[in-house]
TrEMBL record:
Keywords: ATP-binding, Cytoplasm, Kinase, Nucleotide-binding, Transferase. InterPro entries: Cytidylate_kin, Cytidylate_kinase_dom, P-loop_NTPase. Pfam families: Cytidylate_kin (PF02224). This is Cytidylate kinase. It comes from Nocardioides pini. It is found in: Cytoplasm.
């Protein structure tokens, strides 16, 4: 890790960053972790890894009972260096594959299956351990780690999110990217178990008109205020 501002004061800190798809959670969380000398956990990557594995095994991701029965099988491991996060399934590096269209289309329904959430919840809590970490997802401040010292709910207008996500992926079809983001938001917010929601005590940061550096600064300030 390069530029730790205040590692001594941030040792056991947990920063929860929740929000909609494409709101900038990953770049923001990695930047905050790097600035504060913290680890970084991308819980979305864990749901994506589970989905990739189910698809590879030929399991029908629309069959809730089949998904539930298989959820305990893959070994999913997350590397928590914010400058080089990794994700493996049964020892295979899947960091590129989990961003594909097939996973994008299936990950929200898979994430709604309670047995999938229970399995990954255990792994997430184990990775958080004694803290010193920025964790991004949908239910971190509400379910995974409600005791987090800093909780952020990050949002941005759908137009801005679709533009950013399309540019990141080197694509041009902003309209279809936006449709896919909004469909995932709809399922993630509407599911019965641990839906996307603004957790109690969370600070809402709307990144529509902010640069990445400004969003990172805002969260670093919040962390420093909580530790003061
Ligand atoms: O953050 P992301 O787009 O990589 O997340 C992919 C999907 O994973 C998202 O559509 C919903 C699910 N997810 C979740 O249900 N809970 C989390 N804590 C993180 C992600």
């Amino acid at each position: 890790m390069s530029t730790a501002d205040s590692t001594a004061q941030t040792g056991s800190l947990v920063i929860a960053v929740d929000g909609t798809s494409g709101s900038g959670k990953s770049s923001t969380s990695r930047g905050v972790a790097d600035r504060l000398g913290l680890r970084y956990l991308d819980t979305g990557a864990m749901f994506r890894a589970m989905t990739w594995w189910l698809l590879r095994e030929g399991i029908d991701v629309g069959d809730t009972a089949a998904v539930a029965a298989a959820a305990g099988r893959p070994v999913i491991e997350s590397g928590t260096d914010p400058l080089a996060p990794t994700i493996t399934v049964d020892g295979i590096d899947v960091s590129v594959e989990i961003r594909g269209d097939d996973v994008n289309a299936a990950v929200s329904p898979v994430s709604a299956v309670p047995e999938v959430r229970a399995r990954l919840l255990d792994l997430q809590r184990e990775a958080i351990g004694s803290g010193g970490i920025v964790v991004e997802g949908r239910d971190i401040g509400s379910v995974v780690w409600p005791q987090a010292e800093v909780k952020v709910y990050l949002s941005a207008d759908p137009d801005a999110r679709a533009q950013r996500r399309t540019a990141e992926q080197g694509g041009t079809d902003v309209a279809s990217t936006q449709q896919s983001l909004l469909e995932r938001d709809r399922i993630d917010s509407g599911r019965a178990t641990a839906p996307l929601t603004m957790a109690e005590g969370a600070v809402h940061v709307d990144s529509t008109h902010l640069s990445l550096a400004e969003v990172i600064d805002r969260i670093v300030e919040l962390a420093q205020e909580r530790r003061a």
